[in-house]
Amino acid sequence: MVLAQVEHKPWRRRGRLDVIACILREALDWSTKTRLVYRTNLNFRVLGKYLDFLIAKGLVEKAEVRSIVLFRTTEKGRIWLTLYIRLMGLIGELPDQ
């Protein structure tokens, strides 16, 4: 198989809801900001804005353990993520897992 013949999905920008779902999915268990940056493919500045928003809305909680700041999806965030995945399934656009 020649690499040039392999079809690739075209790049597309993620929408705000896609990014939120990605953050909530990656923070299901306690995660550091650095881990979230790498796992969500966002930079620190952009991730920081999303985390501030998600914390304000009660979808993510923040804790500090031995001077390490950790983030975790709240129960409300888990409900939001479940509904988002179901909605995307209904319209036939399941997000990449």
Short description:
By secondary structure, the chain is of the alpha+beta class. The chain has helices spanning 16-26, 33-40, 44-56, 75-90, and strands at 31-32, 60-65, 68-73.
Structural notes for this entry:
The chain is 49% helix and 14% strand. α1 crosses α4 (75-90). It is α+β, with helices and mostly antiparallel strands. A three-stranded antiparallel sheet has the order 1-3-2.
Shape: globular
Radius of gyration: 16 Å
Roughly how many Å apart are the termini? 26 Å
In terms of DSSP E residues, the strand content is 5-15%
* Count of DSSP H/I helices: 4
Q: Which blocks of ≥5 consecutive residues have pLDDT under 50?
A: none
Based on DSSP secondary structure assignment, what is the total number of beta strands?
3
